[in-house]
Design brief:
The protein has 321 residues and is of the alpha/beta class. It has 10 helices and 15 strands. Helix 1 runs parallel beside helix 6 and helix 5 packs antiparallel against helix 9.
Length: 321
């Protein structure tokens, strides 16, 4: 590999950038940097993984984009691998940009002279962690945002660079917020890189931001099956927010006659009820609702274990209770 490797794309004068990311969320940011004319000397993404019924090797969304654009790609199984570290160093990057990638070892994030920056899906220091988009909706927030910051050893704790607020609609799902956030985040990332290049950006320590923080500091841990399982003893609002905060993936779940039922879309019916929380009611034609602490949540878009995802009316036409 040559130390003078450059992208075949038309370049603007400025920093040599290595981009690190894997899922579709990261593609918007990489594309924004490419479209802005930045010099992308390398793209680091996850190794191809078996997927689907045939377990065929599948490329990450970022790799597919990078191949299409003719960008140089590295897919290290381990980020501390000496061969990978040598290849990364040979790219001679001034700056590394991370969007939806794994945790980096210090030897990687400290490598470029301008440091390594990350795009995070919350207004840091609020919602540090792996699933900020989901948890903001699960907790019923009306507002969230995106943040660019400098990487440090502890996750999501580095100095803040730029932030932009995003309103959350009362019916927005995690999927909808994801699509809004990836575009706003991409624009913020471009502004951040430009600011780093021209020296106009001032870094703010998160410790200072925490001193001015008056609300409850919330976290965004990884989602597990327990997180996704609906607790029907909670209020309609809490259950409704959990469902939209986990839609379309990994999806909120409950059980229907011994089988897992995923609920992707729902509505609320706040009424006094003596029904046992979690008990369902249906007319067998148009509705399926589950009792909560202060009413019912109607399941509108669902998927029964082993079946396809469908609307509730279609489901009821073929289901026998």
């Amino acid at each position: 590999m040559s130390e003078n490797y450059t992208s075949p794309l038309t370049e603007r004068k400025g920093s040599r950038i290595v981009f690190m990311g894997t899922p579709e969320f990261a593609v918007a940011s990489l594309n924004a940097l490419v479209e802005a004319g930045f010099t992308i000397v390398g793209v680091i993404t996850a190794p191809d993984k078996p997927a689907g019924r045939g377990m065929r090797l599948t490329e990450s969304a970022v790799k597919k984009y990078a191949v299409e654009k003719g960008l140089h790609i590295l897919q290290p199984p381990k980020l501390k691998n000496p061969e990978f570290l040598a290849e990364l160093k040979a790219l001679n990057a001034d700056l590394q940009v991370v969007v939806a990638f794994r945790m980096l070892p210090e030897v990687v994030w400290k490598m470029p002279p301008l440091g390594t920056i990350n795009l995070h899906g919350s207004l840091l220091p609020q919602y540090r962690g792996a699933a900020p988009i989901n948890w903001a909706i699960i907790n019923g927030e009306k507002q969230t945002g995106v943040t660019t910051f400098k990487l440090q050893q502890e996750i999501d704790t580095g100095d803040l660079l730029l932030q932009e607020k995003i309103l959350i609609g009362e019916n927005d799902t995690a999927g909808q917020l994801h699509d809004i956030m990836k575009e706003i985040g991409a624009s913020l990332l471009v502004a951040t890189v430009k600011g780093i290049e021209d020296g106009s950006l001032q870094e703010t320590a998160q410790s200072k931001a925490l001193e001015q923080f008056t609300g409850e500091l919330k976290h965004a841990p990884k989602l597990f099956t327990e997180t996704c399982t609906i607790n029907w003893n909670k209020s309609c609002d809490e259950v409704y927010n959990l469902i939209r905060g986990l839609s379309p993936y990994p999806a909120a779940l409950t059980h229907l006659n011994g089988k897992i039922l995923k609920i992707y879309q729902s509505s609320k019916e706040k009424v006094n009820t003596s029904s046992t929380p979690g008990a369902y009611e249906t007319d067998g034609k148009t509705y399926l609702k589950f009792a909560c602490a202060n009413g019912y949540v109607h399941a509108l878009d669902i998927q029964l274990e082993g079946k396809k995802r469908i609307g509730v009316a279609e489901f009821l036409r073929g289901y026998r209770f």
